[in-house]
C-alpha cells in the first residue's frame, strides 16, 4: 500500500505545531510520510543580507524543524528549509514531491495584512494536492 505523503509548512509560531498534533491524532505512523518545511522570506535590504544574518535565519529554521521532528518520533520524516516566498516554495515543494496532502494552520494575522491575502489562501487556490487548514 502506498504511503500518503504529507507536506507540513511550519513557521516559528506555536500555532504551527497544531498541524503536528492533528497528524498524530488522525494518522497511523505506518501509513504516512511527512515533509516538514520551513520557508524564510528574505527582504532585500542592505543590512539584512549580511552572511551572519542569513546563517542565523538558517539556524532558526533548523531549530523549528528539529523540534517538530522530535514530536513526530517514529514517523517517517524529512526536513526541508529554504529561503523564498512562502506560498511559492510550498506549492513548488508539494508538486516536486508529489504530495497527497498539505496541512497548514489558519493565519492569526489581523487587519490590512489579512485583507491583502495570505500564504494559506494562495496555497489553497493553487495547490494540486488536497489542502487541510486547521483552526488555531
UniProtKB/TrEMBL annotation:
Domain UspA: from-to ranges = 5-135
Question: Which InterPro entries does this UniProt record tie to the protein?
Answer: Rossmann-like_a/b/a_fold, Universal_stress_UspA, UspA
Q: Which Gene3D superfamilies match?
A: HUPs
- Superkingdom is Bacteria
Matching entries from Pfam families are given as:
Usp (PF00582)
As for family, the record states:
Belongs to the universal stress protein A family.
Q: What is this protein called?
A: Universal stress protein A
- What organism does the UniProt record list as the source? Clostridium gelidum
Amino acid at each position: 500500500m502506498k504511503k500518503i505523503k504529507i507536506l507540513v509548512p511550519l513557521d516559528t509560531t506555536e500555532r504551527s505545531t497544531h498541524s503536528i498534533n492533528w497528524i498524530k491524532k488522525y494518522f497511523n505512523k505506518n501509513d504516512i510520510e511527512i515533509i516538514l518545511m520551513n520557508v524564510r522570506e528574505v527582504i532585500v535590504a542592505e543590512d539584512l543580507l549580511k552572511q551572519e544574518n542569513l546563517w542565523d535565519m538558517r539556524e532558526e529554521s533548523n531549530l523549528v524543524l528539529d523540534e517538530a521532528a522530535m514530536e513526530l518520533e517514529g514517523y517517517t520524516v524529512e526536513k526541508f528549509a529554504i529561503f523564498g516566498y512562502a506560498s511559492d516554495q510550498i506549492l513548488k515543494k508539494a508538486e516536486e514531491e508529489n504530495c497527497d496532502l498539505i496541512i497548514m494552520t489558519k493565519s492569526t494575522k489581523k487587519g490590512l495584512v489579512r485583507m491583502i491575502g495570505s500564504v494559506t489562501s494562495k496555497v489553497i487556490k493553487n495547490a494540486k494536492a488536497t489542502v487541510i487548514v486547521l483552526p488555531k
